[in-house]
């Protein structure tokens, strides 16, 4: 029996693609478009033809024909033979201008740019809507892990209540290494830079900005509400110490930088909370086992229950996988008609302030080791109706430390308690404060 190769739809013209950027991600996208052309044509029903690759500097060591390279991205995206623009440059203002111009010219856009989307999804989605073209961005959150499409499509008929994720590989690498080796933060960060996980300037990763952008994107989709990076409460990991990891181990926990997007229902009214901070996570929680530069996202929806997505959240090849999935979808839509899901923001829920969020705290205090200190500390918790779950003393004399673990209370009550503890004469220092997530009461 002979099998006929399935190629293009009869009479189908090629789909022209412009790739903006030939760095870590762009170079892999270009490689796959060129190396897997036959399979891609069969899957799309038309050949995918690379019209050009925009770069900052034209060099001859990129392994692609020189005539494909250009430094004029604006000219490339508006060419008549370009149907789909892939934006993998990074930054905000330049890609905003380019993506907007591409959409306004009727091109579909695929982007991996979380920083751009966390600020401007609204503007860009409206531009895509006006021209009835696609705006896809699976790669913007958690690299290769399919999470945008499951939320927008597979769970479109369900009600999502919570999305909890480790969405930054650099910080997860650092925290996992601190947990495994007992090394301190600065030492582990230097190693992450040396290994290429962290950028030379790792601020966006370690201060939680990257994860906050991803949280804004996830919350917008999960709760059908426009959430921007500015709506996301954010703390980074730069104050986490080796001592925090030691205490976490003693509590049978580890520390993870979490992105938490939650539906908060009070008196029948739904609001959205989006927040990023390092938190204690019990060892038995599935996210505690996500180590190194890996990412994972747990989605809790009413009908589906808990779902977990796990894999490589960064790197050229994994990220290109997600970009290519979007590119094939956008190309299929060009060939067969139809469009991907539009921005859904009908619910338009209010953003809940951090002070209203109910959470648990771990507070580490350096205290004077004498009678009455414990009761003075406990009184500050009691005054604000914060119930203590456990207290332990570590060390003695000058080095005495009290570690207090609370039950659930509002973040305001907990932070007011910590501020009051800081003023107590018997408390030498509030050494660290971390929230505890993923545990029972
Ligand atoms: P790189 O810095 O590796 O590559 C950026 C590319 O953009 C380079 O090829 C650069 O050109 C080009 N470029 C910069 N300025 C211009 C300009 N003015 N005109 C034309 N081209 C320009 O970035 P990444 O590949 O790492 O990231 C790309 C995007 O993907 C970002 O939005 C990032 O957040 C996102 N992303 C990245 C992941 C990763 O693991 N790297 C994971 C998930 C998302 P030249 O080569 O000449 O310098
Ligand atoms: N800097 C990001 C990370 C890259 O470490 O996860 C992927 O978005």
UniProtKB/TrEMBL annotation:
Residue ranges of the TM segments: none
Protein name from the UniProt record: Homoserine dehydrogenase
Binding-site list for NADPH: 114
Residues the entry annotates as binding NADP(+): 20-27
InterPro entries: ACT-like_dom_sf (IPR045865), ACT_dom (IPR002912), Asp/hSer_DH_NAD-bd (IPR005106), HDH (IPR016204), HDH_cat (IPR001342), HDH_CS (IPR019811), NAD(P)-bd_dom_sf (IPR036291)
Keywords carried by this UniProt record: Amino-acid biosynthesis, Methionine biosynthesis, NADP, Oxidoreductase, Sodium, Threonine biosynthesis
Catalytic activity, reaction form: L-homoserine + NADP(+) = L-aspartate 4-semialdehyde + NADPH + H(+); L-homoserine + NAD(+) = L-aspartate 4-semialdehyde + NADH + H(+)
Keyword Amino-acid biosynthesis in record: yes
Organism: Rhodococcus ruber BKS 20-38
Enzyme class: oxidoreductase
Chain sites annotated for binding L-homoserine: 199
Reported cofactor(s): a metal cation
């Amino acid at each position: 029996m002979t099998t006929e190769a399935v190629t293009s739809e009869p009479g189908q013209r090629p789909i022209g693609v412009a790739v903006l950027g030939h760095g870590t991600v762009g170079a892999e996208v270009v490689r796959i478009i060129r190396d897997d052309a036959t399979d891609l044509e069969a899957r799309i029903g038309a050949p995918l033809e690379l019209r050009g690759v925009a770069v900052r500097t034209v060099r001859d060591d990129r392994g692609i024909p020189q005539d494909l390279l250009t430094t004029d991205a604006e000219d490339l995206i508006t060419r008549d033979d370009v149907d789909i623009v892939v934006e993998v440059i990074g930054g905000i203002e330049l890609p905003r201008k380019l993506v907007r111009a591409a959409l306004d010219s009727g091109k579909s856009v695929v982007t991996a740019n979380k920083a751009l989307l966390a600020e401007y999804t609204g503007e860009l989605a409206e531009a895509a809507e006006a021209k009835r073209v696609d705006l896809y961005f699976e790669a913007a959150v958690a690299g290769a892990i399919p999470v945008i499409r499951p939320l927008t499509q597979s769970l479109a008929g369900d009600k999502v209540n919570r999305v909890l994720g480790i969405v930054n590989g650099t910080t997860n690498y650092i925290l996992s290494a601190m947990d495994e080796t007992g090394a301190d933060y600065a030492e582990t960060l230097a190693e992450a830079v040396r290994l290429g996980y962290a950028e030379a300037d790792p601020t966006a990763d370690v201060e939680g900005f990257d994860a906050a952008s991803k949280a804004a994107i996830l919350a917008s989709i999960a709760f059908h509400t426009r959430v921007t990076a500015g709506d996301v409460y954010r703390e980074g990991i730069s104050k986490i110490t080796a001592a925090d990891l030691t205490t976490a181990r003693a509590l049978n926990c580890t520390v993870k930088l979490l992105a938490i997007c939650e539906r908060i229902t009070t008196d029948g009214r739904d609001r959205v909370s989006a927040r990023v901070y390092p938190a204690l996570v019990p060892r038995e929680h599935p996210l505690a086992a996500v180590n190194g530069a890996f990412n994972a996202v747990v989605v809790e929806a009413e009908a589906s229950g808990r779902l977990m997505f796990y894999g490589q959240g960064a790197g050229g090849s994994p990220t290109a996988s997600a970009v290519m999935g979007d590119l094939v979808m956008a190309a299929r839509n060009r060939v067969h008609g139809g469009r991907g899901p539009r921005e859904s923001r009908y619910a338009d829920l209010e953003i809940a302030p951090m002070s209203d969020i109910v959470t648990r705290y771990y507070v580490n205090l350096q205290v004077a080791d004498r009678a009455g200190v414990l009761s003075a500390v406990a009184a500050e918790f009691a005054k604000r109706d914060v119930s203590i779950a456990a207290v332990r003393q570590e060390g003695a004399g000058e080095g005495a430390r009290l570690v207090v673990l609370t039950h659930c209370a509002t973040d305001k009550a907990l932070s007011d308690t910590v501020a009051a503890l800081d003023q107590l004469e018997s408390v030498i220092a509030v050494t660290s404060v971390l929230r505890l997530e993923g545990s029972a009461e």
